[in-house]
Design goal:
Blueprint (H helix, E strand, L loop, with lengths): L2 H8 L14 H10 L3 H10 L14 H9 L4 E6 L2 H13 L7 E2 L4 H6 L1 H13 L7 E6 L1 H5 L10 E2 L2 E7 L8 H22 L14 E4 L6 H10 L5 E2 L8 H8 L3 E4 L5 H9 L4 E3 L4 H15 L4 H21 L6 E5 L4 H10 L6 E4 L8 H8 L4 E4 L3 H11 L3 E4 L1 H9 L4 E3 H5 L6 H17 L1 H10 L23 H20 L1
Parallel strand pairs: 1-2, 1-3, 3-5, 6-7, 6-8, 8-9, 10-11, 10-13, 11-12, 13-14
Antiparallel strand pairs: 4-5
Helix pairs in contact: 4-5, 4-9, 9-11, 9-12, 13-14, 14-20, 15-16, 17-18
Length: 507
């Protein structure tokens, strides 16, 4: 039996198994398992465990994988999913600055059930995989193709030297878009590792730092890897190209490191590949004075650096950080919440700047790599909520009444409605340096700028009291909306009629 026939027989589920994008989570999971995706779901569940509730409110998780692929040179990305999902993902990607086209393989109920969708994907990959244009082609299954069992693992491993990588990133299997970054980053690193194990590979493009290197795991502000490079230089270490990578060749340089730093601690699949390559992984990041000292110590030990060189690195980096902390003190209570994975690091830095941080909420899960930051924060009375929901973040903000709330868009909106200064974590905090003395100055300046005009919120709240909320929310109202006469009775009769009709069908 050839691939196509086998895909038709084994790679798709029952035609009634998936009720489109709007089927419930349990229905989608059951359909995916029935269609042969149990191993995939088990791996996703192990790498990205849910709880304490189902999953945090976030954008479609697949956006994370899409973002990783679109930022790489000579990498094409093809989406397999419902048209509405593809539209939303590509629209969002362009808002975030993507200047690349995204491939799309459409389907209908017939092509989905018969296995023709698999053939269409295979054909699209074959047309795209031109070695003069691309090093790799990434195919991403969204919810419905995953639930229907579309077998991306049956795609060729490569075509004319162009690597083919197929991944499943269903919303019912990956909790957040942050972790979806890891799904693709880990799959690429696994592919690159097997290539390196089989023989010589291409050198990364551009000049490479001499000596042993440290790989930094996680999306960082562009100035931060440069700053870290200066910090570890006294130890004879350099910084490898950033991971997630900017092009395929960089993956080889990442694997050629002496140790990897899990700056963002949720990259489970990625850290596993470093472990399989025999590279030690350590957590946290050089934030603040204590955080930087501990991180330099961990980096030096992981790279087997002499203690005198570790101390030299500390002596070079720490005085400037101490001076910055003394010059930019923060006095007040701040809550921190977000879904980037750096929430604990930001909280550490705020506390070292003098702020009181009673609550940190992160959409990401607890991992071994976040333990150093978790233990440090908990020893100072901070409540840390992993897999935080919006409701938990809002409850914490309302309870402690901070002078400033760092959070997601809906939290910022609620905070400002209550006269609490607030800033969007992703666009404000993540878009600035975080490490070393530069991180201290950047974060302290943000807090100062946002809290300086706190009295403005009180004036605005008083001025607009009773406007734009509750029954007067929206545009163009001149009074309180009133329910039309007889409307409720009409709706009640319609509900009763639908209930009777449903009972009749059931009999």
């Amino acid at each position: 039996m050839d691939d196509i026939a086998q895909a038709r027989q084994e790679g798709t589920g029952d035609s009634n198994a998936v009720d489109g994008c709007h089927a419930g989570r349990d229905t989608m999971i059951a359909a995916a398992r029935a269609a042969g995706k149990s191993e995939t779901l088990d791996r996703l569940q192990a790498d990205y465990p849910k709880g304490p509730h189902d999953q945090p409110q976030s954008m479609c998780p697949a956006f994370g994988s899409l973002r990783v692929g679109l930022r790489m040179r000579r990498v094409a990305t093809i989406l397999s999913g419902s048209a509405c999902c593809v539209y939303g993902l590509t629209f969002t990607s362009h808002i975030y600055g993507a200047r690349r086209s995204v491939g799309y393989v459409p389907f209908d109920s017939e092509t989905l059930v018969t296995g023709k969708l698999y053939e269409d994907i295979r054909d699209a990959v074959a047309l795209t995989a031109k070695p003069e244009d691309y090093d790799a082609v990434v195919v991403i299954n969204l919810c419905v193709p995953t639930a229907s069992g579309i077998p991306l693992d049956r795609l060729p491993r490569d075509i004319d030297g162009v690597r083919i990588i197929g991944i499943d990133v269903p919303g019912f299997g990956v909790p957040t878009h942050a972790e979806a970054k890891d799904v693709l980053a880990g799959a690429m690193l696994r592919y690159a590792r097997t290539e390196a194990e089989q023989g010589p590979v291409q050198r990364p493009r551009g000049p490479q730092a001499e000596g042993p290197s440290i790989s930094l795991i996680g999306e960082l502000f562009p100035a931060d890897p440069v700053g870290i490079g200066r910090m570890i230089a006294p130890m004879g270490l350099s910084v490898a190209p950033q991971l997630p990578a900017r092009e395929w060749r960089d993956l080889y340089a990442n694997l050629d490191c002496v140790a990897a730093a899990a700056i963002h601690p949720f990259y489970t699949a990625t850290t596993r590949e470093f472990g399989l390559a025999g590279r030690p992984v350590f957590g946290s990041a050089p934030v603040g004075f204590e955080g930087t000292a501990a991180w330099l110590e961990a980096a030096g030990q992981a790279a087997n650096v002499a203690q005198e060189n570790i101390e030299a690195a500390k002596n070079a980096a720490l005085p400037a950080i101490r001076d910055a902390l003394a010059a930019r003190r923060i006095d007040g209570r701040i809550t921190v919440s977000g879904y980037e994975g750096s929430e604990l690091l930001v909280a550490r830095l705020l506390i070292e700047c003098g702020a009181e941080v009673p609550y940190v909420g992160t959409a990401c899960p607890r991992t071994d790599w976040s333990d150093p930051d978790r233990e440090w924060l908990q020893s100072r009375g901070v409540h840390i909520q992993y897999r935080a929901s919006l409701e938990q973040d809002l409850a914490a903000m309302q309870e402690v009444r901070p002078m400033l709330a760092l959070g997601t868009t809906p939290l910022v909106q609620k905070a400002k409605e209550r006269g609490i200064p607030a800033i969007y974590f992703t666009n404000m905090v993540s878009a600035r340096p975080l490490f070393g003395a530069a991180g201290v100055m950047a974060l302290a300046d943000i807090v100062a700028n946002q809290t300086r005009g706190a009295e403005r919120f009180d004036r605005m709240k008083g001025f607009f009291q009773g406007v734009g909320g509750g029954d007067v929310a929206g545009y163009g109202w001149t009074g309180k909306p009133e329910t039309p006469a007889g409307f409720k009775d009409k709706q009640r009769r319609m509900r009763e009629a639908r209930a009777r009709a449903a009972e009749a069908v059931g009999t």
